[in-house]
Amino acid sequence: MAARTRRPMRREPSQERSRAMVRRILDAGYEVLLAHGYDRASTGRIAAAAGISPGSLYQYFPDKHVLLGEVVDRCADRLRARISRAFVANLAGGSLPDAVRGNVLALITAFEENAGLLRVLYEQLPPNADTRRADFKHRIDELATTALLGYLPGGARADAVAWVLVRTVENLAISYVLDPPEVDREDAVEEITALLTGYLATRLDPERR
Amino acid sequence: MAARTRRPMRREPSQERSRAMVRRILDAGYEVLLAHGYDRASTGRIAAAAGISPGSLYQYFPDKHVLLGEVVDRCADRLRARISRAFVANLAGGSLPDAVRGNVLALITAFEENAGLLRVLYEQLPPNADTRRADFKHRIDELATTALLGYLPGGARADAVAWVLVRTVENLAISYVLDPPEVDREDAVEEITALLTGYLATRLDPERR
Amino acid sequence: MAARTRRPMRREPSQERSRAMVRRILDAGYEVLLAHGYDRASTGRIAAAAGISPGSLYQYFPDKHVLLGEVVDRCADRLRARISRAFVANLAGGSLPDAVRGNVLALITAFEENAGLLRVLYEQLPPNADTRRADFKHRIDELATTALLGYLPGGARADAVAWVLVRTVENLAISYVLDPPEVDREDAVEEITALLTGYLATRLDPERR
Amino acid sequence: MAARTRRPMRREPSQERSRAMVRRILDAGYEVLLAHGYDRASTGRIAAAAGISPGSLYQYFPDKHVLLGEVVDRCADRLRARISRAFVANLAGGSLPDAVRGNVLALITAFEENAGLLRVLYEQLPPNADTRRADFKHRIDELATTALLGYLPGGARADAVAWVLVRTVENLAISYVLDPPEVDREDAVEEITALLTGYLATRLDPERR
DNA sequence: AATGAATGAGGATTCATTCAT
DNA sequence: AATGAATGAATCCTCATTCAT
């Protein structure tokens, strides 16, 4: 299977192998995280899931928390990428309500497709990794804030407005997915859209206020 | 094997005593939870905090998770009571914006005064107690929904509207407290109020729609 | 086997039991120390030797090093007691050479009878317990110094003289026991005696110098 | 199974290279031993210090203990050489007390300049290397014994006398360096000299006895 | 009812050693 | 000869739970 290099590897495929191993471990960590939850994600289980020996983990990560931290980072990055794509696909919409509806729908869908991951990120606490989750949130924030600031007038409260909008969409979408109400999906989307549209209309056209 | 108690228990109001003990243990659990976080909340520490022996915990709770579950329940109940009072105090407000602003402010304040508790409830996961947090949320929901349904016309989507409103206020208030944005408190309150008022206006007076 | 106390132990025999357990653990630690050496003295082995479970060690000692520290202390104390008795038995001797010879012999004998223990104390390093061994030495020092200062005039160098004497006897005795030379025991004792007697004679009677 | 080396090894002076490598490893071992102490002297750290891979150690040493054993041997040899030079420089002295004083001083100085090494040899136990330290001692013994036997009459107890003298000087010097008493250096040297001179005088001139 | 000592499985981490390349 | 990744046993310690008293 391996290349039959006669010379002692001048092009260091070890770099490659190492990265593959890290990937494998992170995948295993992710798997264990979803399957057992944060506190049951022991080094033993992760090693087993990665098909390696427990000691080998420490060749690639200094300790368990760093490892799990990177797992969570990867989760977050994936989710962010997914969301990013969703937003981009809906920015070009026509009327304001349509654009908003599209984005809300896209966000909910993105979350629904990653419910397990969302649950880990939002319900399984990395004990002292408040930071990490905050980081994740802030990264989504940035993304959405950037997208929204285009629509807003540069008024003094632009930050506050962006914060309200971003937190509202995100929280509602997450609430809808992680803690589903007994409400039709379409109705939910429609109401969220109305909520945001009304607010946005006010903020986009200050005179109406 | 049976207990070798000589005296037939003097008619002590054991029912009473038992309840007092449960209270004491739950208080200890709460204390430990706040002081050490969920995973460091060991039975030993809780027993010590309650001034009893670890074995005695099992006289009152079948295992650690049930115990901590009830602790979390009590936290939630306390918080709910606190919020309930806040709402009640602000329902009688005059104009719609004033009433909304009052409630938003009350909610944020209530959360701020219980930030530690909130952090435990929202950032420290009871490992498989997804249920529990959902329960907590739902109970707050009920409360607020009840309060809000009074304002809403009995249209088909009343539930959806209530859900949106409740989730929005609560999530925004929690976000503001647990993950404070760089936004003035007054600005935040004002924007949240605007968001909700605009939406409520639409929903309260269907004709405008 | 156990006492059939009907009342919940007003005279706390637990105190007693606890002390017995500590003794048992320390004995086990000593045993393991002699049998396997310091670095192989693992908590597991000690627990096994004590016939208890590893976790139980921590009911009585905060960690392994404290436990082993106390084991070493006990060794040292035993040895010191042994030596103390030996000295006392020989202090009443008649002529100076006889008294010295008696003490040298007593010390060597005491060490010979505790060679294993001596080996642990002098050849098995408690990694950071330099302190501990120094303590042990100093305690023997005190003992011997006290004994010797009686013979010395209160000259300025009394300390130096006592130090030389004590270190010399002790080190020679230990060297003889731990690292036996190819020299007759009697000859060794005789030479050590001569060494010390000559020096003492000089120091006890300054005029001769 | 056999090594698949294509070229017949170019006639490299492998013998030479091998010896150089062994030296490098032993130096690394010494360095690690001084820096981290015996139990922290892991193969990994030694390999790192030698700038080679852990696996390569096993090309030159069958296992860790042999490696460290040789490290200790080298330490001892170096120390012995140092001491040897010190003795030689002081043997030509005039009067007996002067010669003795010179040697005592030289020994203490030599030990002081190698206190770290001394500490490893005397306080850090090679777990079962009782042997090794004894070896070291015996080699110093030989040296000093040889030097001293010149002064001694060939009586039956020459060995015992030499043993007493050597052990006494060495132990006192080591005690002084590793476990410094609260005694002036000069006083200490003077007393040690007196101790030895008195004894030597007796033994060198049997008639006085 | 209460105790609290005892348990023992489980967890994170280290490290001497091996082996495919 | 050299590498260094992989191993896996061993180590220390924690903690939920039980049980004799």
Description of the molecule:
Chains A, B, C, D: This is TetR/AcrR family transcriptional regulator. Chains A, B, C, D: Residues 42-61 bind DNA. Chains A, B, C, D: Keywords: DNA-binding, Transcription, Transcription regulation. 4 copies of one chain form a homotetramer. The longest helix of chain A is centred in the middle third of the chain and has 28 residues, at 64-91. The first copy, chain A, is 74% helix and 0% strand. The first copy, chain A, has 9 helices and no strands. With 209 residues, chain A is an all-alpha fold. In chain A, helix 1 (13-36) packs across helix 2 (43-50), helix 4 (64-91) packs antiparallel against helix 5 (96-112) and helix 5 (96-112) crosses helix 9. Chain A folds into 2 domains: 13-61, Arc Repressor Mutant, subunit A (Orthogonal Bundle); 72-208, Tetracycline Repressor, domain 2 (Orthogonal Bundle), CATH 1.10.357. Chains in contact: A-B, C-D. At the A-B interface, helix 7, helix 8 and helix 9 of A face helix 7, helix 8 and helix 9 of B. Chain A binds a DNA duplex (21 and 21 nucleotides) through residues 2-5, 8-9, 14, 17-18, 21, 42-44, 52-59, 63-64.
What's the short version?
The structure is a homotetramer of 209-residue chains. Chain A is mainly α.
Q: Which two chains share the most extensive interface?
A: A-B, 41 and 40 residues
- The CATH topology assignment of the largest domain in chain A is Tetracycline Repressor, domain 2
The coarse overall form of chain A would be: elongated
Quaternary arrangement of the chains shown?
A: homotetramer
Low-confidence stretches of chain A: 1-11
Helical content of chain A stands at over 70%
Please report the number of helical segments of chain A: 9
Annotated CATH homologous superfamily of the largest domain in chain A: Tetracycline Repressor, domain 2
Q: What portion of residues of chain A belong to β-strands?
A: under 5%
Rg from Cα of chain A: 22 Å
What structural class should be given to the helix and strand makeup of chain A? mainly alpha
